[in-house]
Amino acid sequence: MKSKKYLFSIITFVLSFGCALFIAIKVFPNNPFTGGQQEKAVTKKATETPYRDGDIIFQTSESKQCEAVRIATNSKFSHCGIIYDLNGKWFVFEAVQPVKLTPIEDWIKHGKGSQYVIKRLKNDRVLKPDVLEKMKAYSQQFEGKEYDAYFEWTDNRIYCSELVWKIYQHVGIELSQLRELKDFNLKNPMVQKILKERYGNDIPLHEKVVAPSDLADSNLLKTVADTY
Known about the structure:
By secondary structure, the chain is of the alpha+beta class. Helix content is 37%, strand content 17%. The chain is built from eight helices and eight strands, in the order ααβαβββαβααβαβαβ. Strands 4-3-2-1-5-8 form a six-stranded antiparallel β-sheet, sandwiched between helices. The longest helix has 26 residues, at 2-27.
């Protein structure tokens, strides 16, 4: 009787595991984050591509809001994301509407003149395979979330530089100090118009903010590509 009981337990476990595996594959059939070849992907030689897992890429977008961001931060950059190698393919994980993975070729085309700058940690040895996997695992909780047009420092919605900052901070790397909204150039008419449309007369001047320019100017990063 004991042997039959153990055999039944083993069969039950195998069936349960198989069912769970089937559900995982069914639910995430096209999600690059859950691919099975990530170990192979992160061991690529750096000479095969100008990109590296975890690089940060910046561009100038052409929307009115992005132009206001550029003016308010006194920077040519208005958008950024993290470059990820997933299943041997290169993506930019970015906060747009919604937060998503975008093939890097498409991401570059979305920028003004297809120009971009790529920055990398000066001490890039910190981004070991296990650290990168931790970043990617943490990133999944943001995928599909709405873009935060109000620049609130919460995880309910999220904007581009906030996304990058929080993913790096999750693995113990604080790319820049946070600032407050009032620290930026808010006097420009275009910026004031956007603020008025978003907040009315109740502008959250003390809201924590991180801008693409804050990340681009980080002392922890170096430029590895610049097409401007």
